[in-house]
Amino acid sequence: MDGGTLYTIGDLARRTGLSVKTIRFYSDQGIVPPVERSPAGYRLYDAAAAARLDLVRTLRDLDVDLATVRKVVDRELTLAQVAAAHAEALAVRIRTLRLRHAVLTAVARRGSGPKEMELMHRLAKLSQDERRRLVGDFLDAAVPDVEPGLAGARVSMTPELPDDAEPEQVEAWVELAELMADPSFRTAMRDLTTSHASDRAADGGGGVRRDAVSLGLGRAGTALAAGVDPAGPEAAPVVAAVAGEYARLLRLPDDAALRRRLLARLEAANDPRRERYLRLLAVINAWPPPAPSTPALDWLLTALHTHPAP
Questions:
Q1: Are 290 and 175 spatial neighbours (Cβ–Cβ below 8 Å)?
Q2: Dihedral, CA of residue 22, residue 27, residue 30 and residue 32, to nearest 10
Q3: Residue 44 lies in a domain
Q4: Residues 6+ apart with CB under 8 A from 247
């Protein structure tokens, strides 16, 4: 099409692939107005109008609304401004669609009913700020700021669901959110945290960098792998080694009272919900899965019950 030729709506329809009805609509809206009319009253368009129509078609194909299209063709907005705004809107839409896909995938995998699906959708679509408030409320209850040394524990227990979460991460987030809302779990975690803080205080806050669980897991895991019977006499040296290290860190004697204290710490830690929390946290944060602690804790608890005193 050259600059001096005029074209009918039919010509433009054949050139652009748009329907005559669509072009007439744009013309009636003043978005692509005709430059003149033929003696018979037909609308005629020049090359500039055809180029304008190409631009309109491209913008509409990109889901740009008609009001914005008008501002672009009238030069009230630049293409760069429109592109930036719609790229951001499209990114939000993509995140929304990924989230819906993740929820539906999780529902299909879990065989969820309507109520569970509603809960999953509600928890999954929380904004980042809402998720942070939920996590903050849990950590305030479960990991109280009893002393500065526990700041790292709060960080290590914080889930960060990414915007482009995979279905497994969304499913893990939903389960973790339900767990964080469980009052009994909050209480159990608070008791465990304050117990660890108490152990640190017993040593002036300087010596106990590990908790009672980490002190015993290594030795108990080795004994378990070696087939040592926790209720047998072979378990006594293992208990003595774990209790002795705990006693040294607390600067207390290894006696029946200390072993009762150690037993209480380990029983509190051997809550399956705690291990489940750590596993879900690893999925959400894309961390390596933690090694299971329950088998070693079970072994050590049985051994401590069998050997309650040196």
A1: no
A2: 90
A3: yes
A4: 253, 254, 258
Residues 50, 132: one domain? no
Which residue in the block uniquely carries the two structure tokens 């748009």? Answer: 18
> How many CB atoms sit inside 10 A of residue 38's CB?
11
**Residue-level pLDDT at 208:** 43
In this structure, is residue 86 part of a structural domain?
A: no
Spatial distance between the Cα atoms of 189 and 191, rounded to a whole number of angstroms: 5
| 209 shares its domain with 295 | yes
Domains held by the chain: number: 2
Is residue 257 situated within a structural domain? yes
Check: CB of residue 263 under 8 Å from CB of residue 247: no
Residues 289 and 148 in one domain: yes
DSSP per residue over 251-299, as a string?
T---SHHHHHHHHHHHHHH--HHHHHHHHHHHHHTTPPPPPP-HHHHHH
Residue 78, judged by CB atoms within 10 A of its CB (0-12, 13-18, 19+), counts as: exposed
Instruction: Provide the domain limits for residue 59.
Output: 9-77
Counting every residue, how long is the chain?
A: 310
Q: 120: which 2 tokens?
A: 């999953």
> How many other C-beta atoms lie within 10 A of the C-beta of residue 264?
13
Interatomic CA distance for residues 50 and 14, integer angstroms: 11
What DSSP string describes 181-244?
Answer: T-HHHHHHHHHHHHHHHHHHHHTTTTS--S-HHHHHHHHHHHHHHTT--TTSGGGHHHHHHHHH
Statement to judge: residues 136 and 66 lie in one domain: no
- CA distances in angstroms from 71 to 24, 34, 81, 144, listed in the order given: 19, 18, 11, 55
Run means of pLDDT, 10 residues per run, the chain, 310 residues: 76 90 92 90 89 88 86 84 81 77 76 77 78 91 70 84 83 89 93 83 56 86 96 97 92 94 93 95 95 94 95
Classify the C-alpha dihedral 226-229-234-240 as positive or negative: positive
